[in-house]
């Protein structure tokens, strides 16, 4: 079992969910989905209380995301101007990306939790481009709510079969990525259609 999750829960209980998920979003390569699925199984077994596990997971996730947002916000344009050239990010490119992100990127924050690697970057980037905190929080916290409920709920629902669920998710993870891309594309199209309709009405 990755990171010996069972032993961590035996020693620290709910704190594993909070600290592990918080640190995952900042830097630590922590298996968030595995931990939540196992926590769901423990709630099925009566070892943990399901709602308590969910609350600890939710707060660990949202606090971790908020910290990454604040780091990005603090770094801001001076960081891009100083170091951006080393990763081919110029202020002009960031400005163009900012306009795109303000239109469609909030959806990516929400669904990005289900895409490995993406959920670790969206908070930093939202802060880096100066996305309003209320907007960021609405999508980030809503996505965290759905992400935590989904994995803890699956662990509880499947009980002893939770590892099979994990293997199935890992095996079909590319489908989740494809679905996320499709959903993002649909969001872009819907927004474009709404804006086109408004512009025609105003003529």
TrEMBL record:
What the entry lists under InterPro entries is as follows: DedA_domain, VTT_dom
Gene Ontology cellular-component terms for this entry are: plasma membrane
Transmembrane helix among keywords: yes
Record carries keyword Membrane: yes
The record's listing under Pfam families reads: VTT_dom
Residues annotated as domain VTT: 30-156
**What keywords tag this UniProt record?**
Membrane, Transmembrane, Transmembrane helix
Regions that span the bilayer: 12-30, 50-72, 107-130, 136-155, 176-194
The entry's family comment says: Belongs to the DedA family.
This one is known as DedA family protein
